[in-house]
Each structure stands twice: as C-alpha cells, then as structure tokens.
C-alpha cells in the first residue's frame, strides 16, 4: 500500500539559514523513499505557530495547516536540535500543539492519531540526545502515534566543540544505519497498523 511521511524540522533557524535538523530530516525522507514512502518537509519556525494546546488558536495561527499535513501522513518524523541539553523550543511547541489530538477522536472512539507511526531525530554539538529522544517518545506516544523498535537516531558532536552535523564531510555510519533501521521499522509498522488497526 502507498504510505506518506511528514518530517517536522524543529530548528530555530529560518529557511534562509543552513540547518543540521533539516539535513537529518531529509535523510529520513530519503530512507523512507527507499520503501516507496512519499514524503514532505515542514520547517516549523517559518510558520506562525501560536502557543497553546488547542487544534486552532485563532488570530493568524498557522498550526492548523501543518496539522492537516500531520493528519494526512502515515509516518510523522520530528527532528530537533539540542540547546542547553534540551530539545528546541520549537519542538516543545509542536508537542504542545499535538497534545490537543489526544482529545480528538475517530469514528471508532480512538484518538485521531492512532495508527500513525512516529520517528525522531536529534542533532547537536552538545550532549542530551538520549534524554531528548526519551522525552519525544513519551510525548508522541501520549498523543497517539506508535513508536517502532529503535525508532530514532541522533548525532552529538565532540564536547565543547562547535562543529555541526551539516558541517561534516559525511554523516557517521552509525547515525545513518540507525536512521535506515528506524525508517524500515516504521514502514513495516505502518503497514501492519493499516491492515490491523487498534481495537475500538
């Protein structure tokens, strides 16, 4: 069956600036494309996503358009940079807005994001990737998507250095192999859930 993916790049940098998070997000989309998954990418910071925990915060809020893309996707990828050992404020905003979906239900009574699969990626030239991944997994799971086995990858630069992921001549093999495994597992899980949905 045909599957689609949406990658949410949670960098703090607007589109004019290079983004390590965008590089990893595109690497995810490339890996998913190898399994015939059509993907698209949103750089969230380019949009006026208002604070709040509703599906639409009104007054020029641009989250509803992004939300429609989330709802249309089978696989949702969230990639964030690391700042002071934490996920970006943009990633936190995405999680806050997704929190509204736990109250939105389908015809079978389940949360509207049930049946979707979530992947995560973390980049940064400082430590924090394991904690950020755990926080993302928990928050995404709370809103309804399912996390596949080994459903995330990361890259941390050497401590106290300023090299970024997109400064590397090539991505480390371990990071890419884990990304490819996560992508393959996500596709497998999405296909299983499409055939055998969660019970009502």
TrEMBL record:
InterPro entries assigned to the protein according to its UniProt record, in alphabetical order: Flavoprotein-like_sf, FMN_Rdtase-like_dom
Annotated NADPH-dependent FMN reductase-like domain residues: 6-150
Protein name (Swiss-Prot/TrEMBL): NAD(P)H-dependent oxidoreductase
Organism, as annotated: Aeromicrobium halocynthiae
């Amino acid at each position: 069956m045909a599957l689609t993916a949406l990658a949410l790049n949670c960098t703090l940098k607007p589109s004019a600036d290079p983004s390590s998070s965008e590089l990893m997000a595109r690497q995810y989309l490339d890996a998913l494309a190898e399994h015939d998954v059509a993907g698209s990418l949103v750089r969230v910071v380019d949009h006026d996503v208002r604070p709040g925990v509703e599906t639409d915060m009104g007054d020029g809020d641009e989250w509803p358009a992004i939300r429609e893309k989330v709802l249309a996707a089978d696989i949702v990828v969230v990639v964030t940079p690391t700042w002071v050992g934490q996920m970006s404020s943009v990633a936190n905003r995405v999680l806050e807005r997704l929190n509204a979906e736990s109250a939105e239900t389908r015809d079978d009574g389940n949360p509207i994001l049930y049946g979707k699969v979530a992947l995560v990626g973390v980049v940064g030239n400082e430590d924090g990737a394991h904690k950020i991944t755990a926080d993302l997994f928990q928050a995404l799971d709370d809103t309804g998507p399912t996390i596949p086995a080994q459903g995330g990858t990361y890259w941390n630069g050497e401590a106290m250095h300023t090299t970024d992921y997109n400064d590397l001549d090539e991505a480390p093999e371990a990071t890419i192999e884990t990304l490819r495994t996560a992508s393959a597992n996500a596709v497998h899980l999405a296909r299983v859930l499409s055939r055998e949905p969660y019970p009502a």
